[in-house]
Structures are given as C-alpha cells and as structure tokens.
Design goal:
globular, three-stranded antiparallel beta sheet, 52% strand, twelve-stranded antiparallel β-barrel, Porin
C-alpha cells in the first residue's frame, strides 16, 4: 500500500472516531440548527505568506449548515476577479464539528476537499484535501489557539498554526452584537506540495503536460518544517438575528525563502534549473482584506 494513502486513510479514520466520540457530549442548551449564505470579497489571495505576481482578488460565496449538535458543513465557491481571467477558480467542501470542554476550552475537528479549475494558477493547487483540528484555551479573556492540519497532495504536509487573540464584545439590548478581535498567528509547515505543483506546472501558468519522453522532477533544496509567516489581523464582526457582517484586514510578514530545483531527463540528456516560484524570489510583506455580508435562515 502507498504510505501516503495509508497515512491519509488512517488519519481520516482516527478523526472520524474522535468526532463520533465527541458527538456524545451535550451541547449548549441554546444551540439551534441554522442555514446561512455569505458573500465576501477578498482583495488578494495569500497562502502561507506568499502571493503571486499577478494580484488575485476573489468573490467568495459560502453556504453553511450548522446543526444543533455541533456538526457543520460548508460549500464554498471562489470566483476569480482578475481581468481577463474571470472564472470559478476553485471550490471547497468542508465537514466539521465544534466542541467545548467546560467554559475555557473549545475547538474544532474538520476535513476539507478542494476542486480546482483546469486553468487555475494557484501555486498550492496540487493540495487535494486536508484534515485537522484546533484546541483553544481562554485564559482571562485572552485566547491561545492551536491548529494542526495535514494537507494531502502527492505527499502529505503537516502544518501547525499557533495564535493569540483577544475578543472585545459590545452587545445591545436587542441582541445585536459587535465584536473586534485583534489576532496574531504564525504558520509553520512542511512544503511537499511545492515539489508536486511545480513539477506539473513549470515555473508559472496553468497545468501543462510534460513533453513526451521527458521525466521532470522538482525537489526542495531544504526540506523539513519551516516558519513561513506571521499574520496580524483585526476582524470586525456584526451579528443580529438574521444579518451578519464581517471585515478582516490582515498584514502578513513572510519568512524563510523556499527554493527548488527541477531536473529534466530524456534518454540522452539531463538538465537542471532553478524552479523557485516567483512568490519565493520576491518575498514581501503583504496586506489584504476580506469583507462580506451574510444572512441566517
């Protein structure tokens, strides 16, 4: 059996067993089943502190179903708004579970499946799915969050995302609520998806078949877990009985340039070249924002 598939299947089974066990816990008495639709605008796509040379804004439509027992599912459609490239670029399907242990500990267990357009230029689009969980501790109004994810492409990647945030809530008598949540998060990850994505795409652009008779292999020049970026954000949220509004400005500081080398082999020749993606050769601090409005049924 392929080791990656074995790890993926085993991890998925363990996650399902944990979720099934967690479902036996009682949820808050005021929990209800709800369905919601949200439409967002994302000013530029950034992944692990990296952005492409061409700005990639998205219109994001999310349909969410939350059950009273804590189980939820999301269907997310991401429509690329770059002039000359407008299209549904990728879709995401989520299944998860919100849990709480007393008043101080909460978190999620979740899994996601991704579906990409054949024309997508996303440098992380070889990632097909992920499973993960979060463990959050509230200590005197300051919340310490820990997220652990496994991302699957041709190889599995492990990502750890620790963070600290503080939520300030203003609640009116008619149950309309404003919250502001200053947050700092770090992203630490392995980078196997770089190898498979660059092998399929070349330096940039949509998926391209490798020429007949050519074997192409891309490898990381430095493997292992990398501290990739720090995210500073101040999400502002409004919630009433049916209407939600969210605005999240984010400043991202990338770290640790990732370099790759690609080797092309034919029956008679072997050539190698630097295939480091543009985003790595031009690491810069980035700013983006996401703004959206939703309706709960």
């Amino acid at each position: 059996m392929n080791p990656t598939n074995f790890f993926k299947n085993t991890t998925f089974i363990i996650c399902c067993m944990i979720m099934q066990s967690s479902l036996a816990q009682d949820k808050k008495s005021d929990s209800t089943t709800s369905f919601s639709i949200q439409i967002d605008y994302l000013s530029n796509y950034i992944y692990n502190g990296r952005a492409d040379s061409l700005k990639s804004p998205y219109q994001i439509t999310t349909a969410s179903l939350h059950f009273a027992n804590g189980v939820y599912t999301n269907l997310i459609a991401n429509y690329l708004l770059t002039p000359g490239q407008k299209r549904f670029d990728f879709f995401e399907l989520d299944l998860g579970y919100d849990y709480s242990l007393g008043k101080k500990i909460s978190g999620q267990l979740y899994g996601s499946k991704y579906f990409y357009s054949g024309q997508t230029n996303l440098f992380n689009s070889d990632i097909t799915s992920n499973i993960g969980g979060s463990f959050n501790i509230d200590l005197g109004g300051i919340q310490f969050n820990h997220n652990l994810d496994v991302f699957f492409s041709s190889k599995a990647d492990l990502q750890y995302t620790p963070g600290v945030e503080k939520t300030v809530t203003i609640k009116n008598a008619d149950n309309k609520t404003w919250t502001i949540t200053p947050s700092i998060y770090a992203e630490i990850s392995s980078l196997n998806y770089y190898e498979s994505s660059i092998t399929q795409r070349g330096l940039r652009g949509p998926r391209q078949p490798i020429a007949s008779g050519v074997t192409s292999t891309t490898t990381l020049n430095s493997k292992g877990m990398k501290f990739l970026d720090l995210n500073f954000s101040i999400p502002l949220n409004y919630e009433s009985k049916n209407i939600t509004f969210a605005f999240t400005p984010t400043y991202v500081m990338p770290f640790n340039k990732v370099t790759t080398t690609t080797v092309n082999k034919t029956a008679t020749t072997t050539t190698s070249f630097d295939s480091t993606p543009y985003a790595e050769k031009n690491l810069n601090n980035q700013f983006n924002f996401q703004i959206g409005i939703g309706y709960k049924f």
